[in-house]
Amino acid sequence: MDERLKWLTPAAALLASVPCSYATTYLSVAQAQQEAFPDADQFVSNNILFTPGQINAIQAASGQKVLSRGQQVWKAMQRGKLQGYFVVDYVIGKHLAIDYAVALSPSGEVRRVEILTYRESYGGEIRSADWRKQFIGKTARSRLSLNDDIRNISGATLSSRHVTEGIKRVLATYEVCLKR
Amino acid sequence: MSVRMKHVFLSLLLFTVSCTSGRQLLGASDSDTQPSNAELLKQVQALVAKVDQLETKLARYEKSSSTPPAKAPKSTESTGKSVASQDINAGSSTSVTSTVEDNSSVKTPLFGLGYRSNAVLSIGAYGELKFGGQEAPGGWKDGFDAGRIVLLPTLQVTENIIFNAEIEFEHGGIADDEDDKLTGSVDIEQAYIDFKFNEYFNWRAPGVDVVPFGFINLFHEPTQFYSVQRPELDNGLIPTTWFEGSTSIYGKIVDNLNYQFQINTGLEDIGQNGGVPDGPYEPGISGEEALALARTPIGDFNQTKNAPGFALRLSYTPPFLPGLAGSTSVFYTSNVTPRGAHADNGESLGHDSVTMVDTEVRDRIPHTGFEFRGEFVDAFFGSPGNLRANNDGDPENNVGDHMWGYSLEAAYHIELANFVRNGWEIVPFYRYTYENLQTGGFSGSDANLPTGQGKRQFHTLGVAAFPTPQIVLKLDYQFALDDAPNSPRADHFLGAVGFFF
């Protein structure tokens, strides 16, 4: 019996010392907004409810199906001047949703990608900054193709592919709905 | 009114009242029965409560629903504090606020029902269907195998708790009658609940899980490897699919370096059901099957020894080598010898430890179609003299003090998106595998006469075609060789259809 207790004690100590936070959400929307646009003083809600025409145009431009009724968008403003757009989107990894955000410049270039909530047990490697950095500068005209201009992470193939496809769709959404 | 009339009237009144009461007592649901004031009041109160509820719901919906962009800019709400000029002059830091609550922001009606991960059981699937020919005594044996169909139920129970399972039907299933000709199996390969604490620490509660060792044992869906059969090293040296009763902790150590530490039921040196009998029994570890028969059972507390197994896997994607991913794994159990284990001569067999190490890499060279994979695995036995295979009277299946192997694979990804409308990817590949299951260091009561069959080489050459990333069509030829005289191993020429949703 003592033999087994010897194994249980460190395990119990480890569990007791762990802070219980909301594990799957890594960044709130507000935190991600601040990281993407540190100079912005105001985020103005600019949500889009897609018209059927917009859905068709986005699907044609990105090659991805549009599964939502709209898109959550904020305009990042600094003293009334547009700094860029902050778009929140989700894709399915293997079976569960990955919430992520794309910060765009006013001309539709990716400034930053943040993974807000990652729920699955595997594939979380896409949260690494090195992987997300690859999207900076991409536009709707970029290839955004896995193993081409975007590195895959084997062992996280599904997450890598679906987030890449999602960002492609978000860029198409900018072209169709937000571009001035 | 005369007295008589009064009597008649009263009688009629009494009669009417008694009839009504009688009906009520008998529980008659007469549509003419009037509800009492108390009942009416109750109904009105219920209606008021319902209206309140609906009003609250409507207000919440209106608050969180989108504002069409066509409206005047003033109407797009900004409840955040805007920095007025006097604040700037006061030197306060620019305040940045979001207009929407964190939790509710991603659950708006915009995303629709498809988004709701919570409380929706999703069932994925993967499977492999194989056909072709294999060398056999007297010629080639052609055939078909409904290799496996696997269901993958997943449920996000709460924000922090996830349920995962793998239910596998192999080789077409099982049947009781002798003339049913079904020789497959139904397995629970995974069934566990994950508790997610933070990115550095998560707990997989005791359940059935794959042992974190190597790559294919964890990522064994048919779209993850290019050959028809799973890589040769995973057919025995690593007993894929190696799943055990287990519990783990896992997470990130630093960026690009993850860990999983598992405690499991370990391996056992018996290759048959029902525990060690009085007479002869099959070894779990041998120079013929390697560790393929050494997995412990997951049912009915049927494991034959107490010592647990421990596995630690570190996986890495070094940023200075873009496109490279790999892992290093260690497994250890202090004893694999089952209770009551004995040699053929009746002597009991003592404890024996097993230590296994594995390193594997997968490199997809960026901006090219080239992919390379390599793997090395080594399994050490603490006291090989206590292994059943070295004491079962069979001189040809003995094991030395370790068994090891390695493989090297090259593949090339051909994108057909420029030529074919629904972009296919075709991947020709070649893999070389070497295994030595019968090294030196033998000890035990058997005569030691290995035939050389334990020193094996495999050349596997083939092509995998992906019409979509979820579906794969495979064809490969395998040359199999070993050092045994007059008995080259069976070559095969096989095809497969695989899917993973």
What does it look like?
The complex is a heterodimer of chains A (180) and B (501). Chain A is an alpha+beta fold and 180 residues long. Chain A has helices at residues 2-17, 29-36, 52-62, 129-133, 157-178; strands at 42-45, 48-49, 70-78, 81-92, 97-104, 110-118. In chain A, strands 1, 2, 3, 4, 5 and 6 form a six-stranded antiparallel β-sheet that branches. Chain A is globular and about 70 Å long. Helix content of chain B is 12%, strand content 39%. The radius of gyration of chain B is 35 Å and the shape is elongated. Chain B has a 16-stranded antiparallel barrel with strand order 1-2-3-4-5-6-7-8-9-10-11-12-14-15-16-17. The termini of chain B are far apart. By secondary structure, chain B is mainly β. Chain B has a single domain (125-500), classed as Porin, CATH 2.40.160.10. Chain B contains four helices and 17 strands. At the A-B interface, helix 2, strand 1, strand 2, strand 3 and helix 4 of A face strand 2, strand 4, strand 5 and strand 6 of B.
Characterize the overall form of chain B: elongated
Sequence of secondary-structure elements of chain A: HHEEHEEEEHH
- Which sheet architecture does the biggest sheet of chain A show? 6 strands, antiparallel
**Share of helix of chain A, binned:** 25-40%
Q: Topology, please?
A:
The complex is a heterodimer of chains A (180) and B (501).
Chain A: H1 2-17, H2 29-36, E1 42-45, E2 48-49, H3 52-62, E3 70-78, E4 81-92, E5 97-104, E6 110-118, H4 129-133, H5 157-178
Antiparallel strand pairs in A: 1-3, 2-3, 3-4, 4-5, 5-6
Helix pairs in contact in A: 3-5
Chain B: H1 3-25, H2 37-64, H3 85-89, H4 102-105, E1 122-136, E2 139-156, E3 161-174, E4 183-198, E5 201-210, E6 243-254, E7 257-264, E8 309-316, E9 324-333, E10 354-364, E11 370-381, E12 402-412, E13 414-415, E14 425-436, E15 455-468, E16 471-482, E17 492-500
Antiparallel strand pairs in B: 1-2, 1-17, 2-3, 3-4, 4-5, 5-6, 6-7, 7-8, 8-9, 9-10, 10-11, 11-12, 12-14, 13-14, 14-15, 15-16, 16-17
